[in-house]
């Protein structure tokens, strides 16, 4: 009896999918969405270099890598970053930082949304590209402060990024990261 019920349920499900309106089918990404993401397309690829982090005890230098790929017909950028202690010998250094983000076009030209995760935390950030092509993105912190990152391409195949924090009620931005990455050749190992 249960086999007959399962067969009936599967048949009913298949029938409902087959008779769904054409508008519910997956449509291609509109050209205007792909065009909105075009200013960020240069970020796609594998990147590696140094990141200097400002901490309470001083500065720390990490080997930073970023893997960036386009998704959904170019309508999204998926970013995965990894910071490692400097390598010792032929082994990779210990991972001390990981982040993941998805970037999409915003509601206005030149504006973007970034959903990002790091150390179990999530931020919903806003971003924009200025007339010089710099991508500025950031978010408010729970205590009323603000974090801001600026990504520039000072020359082909170079990614330069700075990050700064402004505490609540303060006008002073305090830098906490600066990194310069170079695009890695396709297929190179990390």
| Major sheet: arrangement of strands | 1-2-3-4-5-6-7-8-9-10
- Overall, the morphology is globular
Q: Separation of termini? A: 56 Å
Radius of gyration: 22 Å
Low-confidence stretches: 1-20
Helix tally?
2
What would CATH call the class? Mainly Beta
Strand content: over 45%
Secondary-structure element pattern, one letter each: HHEEEEEEEEEE
Sheet with most strands: 10 strands, antiparallel, barrel
Number of spatially distinct domains: 1
Quote the average pLDDT: 87
The CATH architecture would be: Beta Barrel
What's the CATH superfamily, by name?
Calycin beta-barrel core domain
Helix/sheet category: mainly beta
- Based on the structure, what is the oligomeric state of the protein chains? single chain
How many strand units? 10
The helicity comes to: 10-25%
The CATH topology: Lipocalin
Overview of this protein structure:
There is one protein chain. This protein is mainly beta. The chain has one domain (29-183): Lipocalin (Beta Barrel). The protein is 13% helix and 49% strand. It has helices at residues 2-18, 31-37; strands at 45-55, 58-71, 76-84, 95-105, 111-118, 121-129, 135-140, 146-152, 158-166, 174-183. Strands 1-2-3-4-5-6-7-8-9-10 form a ten-stranded antiparallel beta barrel. A hairpin with a 5-residue loop joins β7 and β8 (146-152). The longest helix has 17 residues, at 2-18.
């Amino acid at each position: 009896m249960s086999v007959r019920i399962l067969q009936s349920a599967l048949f009913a499900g298949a029938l409902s999918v087959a008779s769904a309106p054409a508008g519910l089918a997956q449509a291609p990404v509109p050209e205007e969405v792909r065009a909105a993401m075009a200013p960020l397309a240069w970020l796609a690829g594998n990147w590696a270099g140094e990141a200097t982090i400002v901490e309470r005890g001083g500065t720390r230098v990490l080997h930073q890598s970023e893997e960036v790929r386009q998704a959904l017909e170019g309508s999204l950028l998926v970013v995965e970053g990894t910071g490692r202690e400097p390598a010792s010998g032929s082994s990779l250094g210990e991972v001390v930082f990981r982040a993941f983000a998805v970037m999409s076009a915003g509601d206005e030209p030149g504006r973007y949304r970034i959903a990002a995760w790091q150390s179990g935390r999530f931020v919903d950030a806003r971003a924009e590209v200025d007339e010089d092509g710099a991508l500025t993105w950031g978010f408010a912190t729970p205590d009323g402060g603000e974090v801001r990152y600026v990504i520039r391409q000072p020359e082909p195949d170079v990614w330069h990024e700075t990050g700064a924090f402004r505490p609540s009620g303060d006008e002073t931005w305090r830098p906490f990261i600066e990194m310069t990455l170079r695009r890695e050749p396709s297929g190179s190992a990390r």
